[in-house]
Design brief:
This is VCBS repeat-containing protein. The chain is mainly β. It is built from no helices and four strands.
């Protein structure tokens, strides 16, 4: 999957910040290996 020139290898939903809402964790493609976290509060 790609978005605005970025490739992603996988997505997971989970509560990262403990607010009880599902946050999006994206495993980005490329080097260096990294994940990007999108908090549910920032997606509103």
């Amino acid at each position: 999957m790609a978005r605005d020139g970025w490739g992603f290898l996988g997505f997971e939903l989970g509560d990262v910040d403990g607010d009880g809402r599902a946050d999006l964790v994206a495993h980005a493609a490329g080097y260096p290996p990294r994940v990007e976290v999108y908090l549910a509060s920032s997606l509103l």
